[in-house]
Amino acid sequence: MRAIVRVCAVLAISAPMFASAAQQTGIGATSKPFRRTYNASQEITVTGNVRGISVHGKAPAGAHLLITTSHGLIDAHVGSFALRGSQPLSLQTGEQVSVVGVMTWIDGSPILLARTVSTGTKTFVIRNERGALLFPRASSARQLRFKAVNRGGEQQ
User: Domains in the chain and their CATH numbers?
Assistant: First the structure.
């Protein structure tokens, strides 16, 4: 009986350490780490030319816009919804873009979490001010807005 009490006490004391380690490594989380790392006061604007768009399952999963800038190649995460819908993010290789977002490090690599992507004629809003990815929905000819979607299909 005393052994069980001791084991329970050790587990109760060490549980917060395991929870903290899981949060720091992203274990057991989906998109929440990106929301925590997104701080609108740290937004930057990156201007450059489109090198390409890739889609992969590595963290963060979804579409990545590769931008050639004067400082080198920037990987901008635009999420999995930006390429979907009736008016998806459509860019040509070499086209000049301006991306507003927050730089963060994920798995040892710098990633720009894009909030907006602007071309000469259109602005695509990818995330809200808190960094949550948005679902595509057309609002006007010059600006494409997105509607937030909760897990489970509920819309905001």
Answer: 1-30 (no CATH), 32-147 (2.40.50.140)
